[in-house]
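To make the argument concrete, we let one protein speak, a sequence paired with a row of structure tokens, as a model reads it:
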Amino acid sequence: MLIENMEQTKSFMKSLGFPDLRIHHSINHFDFIKTDRRILIIGPMGSGKSEFSARIYRDSQVAMQKSQKVRKLTSSKRVDRRNVFYIRSKIDDKRFAEYPINSIAYRGGYVVPGKNIASIENSFELEGIFESNPTVGTWIIDEIEFFDERIAYVIAQHAKQRSLNFIFPMLILNFRKDLFNRTARLIMEESTDVFPLTAYCEHPDCIRDSYYTYRFYSVDGKECPALYFDPLIIVGGDKRTNDPKIPNYSTRCDHHHFLPGKEYTFMILKPLGELAYGGNVKPLLKELNLVKHDIEQSRLYTHFVDRFIRTENPKPTMMDALRVSCISEKALIYLFTEENIITAEQMQYLMREIGGDMNYINERLMENRKMQLTDVHEES
């Protein structure tokens, strides 16, 4: 059922750059009769996207028990849209380590879709699964923003040629409240329907609706907001962790979504990276060394004090962002993977000079689909 007169929701979707889409209630059983649909299920972490996917699979099992008359309504050529297949990224397998690997897992439960489930790395592997499952009519691709941009066009082609339906439970916005990446943008442009989900803000003093995913670290019992230049993708589970290198996630409203360091990133960090790209690496090296070994003398610390302490409205929570581990490594990853303004060779050199954590660097590069670096201590 289409939502009518939902001006606030329509305004929010338009602010994200969505085309004109049909905005739905998310309480109906899934319609396996309609064809060529590319459906976005969007919302922050904890809003129920995976549970929504599990419900579609359960609906399919009920629909499959219907008569041949129903089969004619839900089928086109060889495919039957009641036949549902679930796809997720291999890097996301560890999110629900306590659940069976072949399950659609969500907070509080899971369903096992038999053989109709797979973990893949890229769009080429997806094409292979399409070929191996020619009768599947509905494909649920979880967290599609983790995949390469090519996947958007592979899906559009198969949807139109074979009357398939696709469902994308995904994060449209990253922890920075920016559009997640180009894959998310391309999937959004090719979509036909959207089901927006919200969650309660998980701040203990708030019960507002939340559209946003919040990333934070737990250090000595303190909630430490992620810095703006934190790596874009860090896979975390749904259980809280006190590891200062591994983030926690929750849903937050705009008021309780803390994101320190954006101004520093563009006023100081990126210009230092551009100097390094131009051949003058010393200013960046000096800043990274101070952040790593004497943070209170760094420009990062000075900027935070001026921005969040010496002000009419102090925000001491923002200062806690500087308590987390591997800040210099995060700055390098940002400059290397997102801004592309330092080279792999420069990154190797800077890591060696500051005594950086190469294991941390390489794990983040792998999650963000970037080449890993060799050990900086090895002789070249």
